[in-house]
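Hello Y.,

Per our agreement to keep a running log of every chain we model this quarter, I'm adding this entry. I've kept the format consistent with earlier entries: sequence first, then predicted structure.
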Amino acid sequence: MQGNETSPPNRPQLLADAAIRVIATSGLRGLTHRAVDREASFPQGSTSYYANTRLALLQMVADRLAERSLADLNDYFAALAAAEPADDAEGRIEQLAGLVTDFVSALVSRPDDMRARYALMLDYLAADPLSGILSSESPLLAGAFAAAPDLLKRFGFLATPQQGRDIMLLADAMTFSRTVHAASPHLQLDVNAVVAAYLRALPRVSV
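Predicted structure for the entry above:
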């Protein structure tokens, strides 16, 4: 599962992508307008033209990260909506756990995005307006939290709003863990097993 762009990226998007790569390789301290120009192979001053302050540059990065994450999230919920629930309870657990695993894998497959996102979250979570895009209170996650209980019910789980929220936060936490421990396979969580265990603890209804 992978959120794909429907058209080639424009210049601001290319600069945002370059900024993401700079953060992923050099950290936030390495993020400068000049560094982004170099990474993008654009003339000096290009980044400043579209983002004339550091906060504006960070905002451009946050918007780009949110755009791609939203594409993955839309793919994930479309797969949930299209899937025909299995006939038996254990089959539905494995089916839904597999879909969550696919979602986490789609996010982890973009390690630069994930490293940049977590760097921004850790250093700029309190900075407005970045917190509104990057935090668990973002519109992106708010929509996921609202939709999750009804989609879980399709698979036979009687999930409260809090439990629907929890499974999305669990997926986010496992994405973080797998990103951080990408070079240490023995420290990586088994996403499918963790989600299946969580689902087995939920009350069930007839599908």
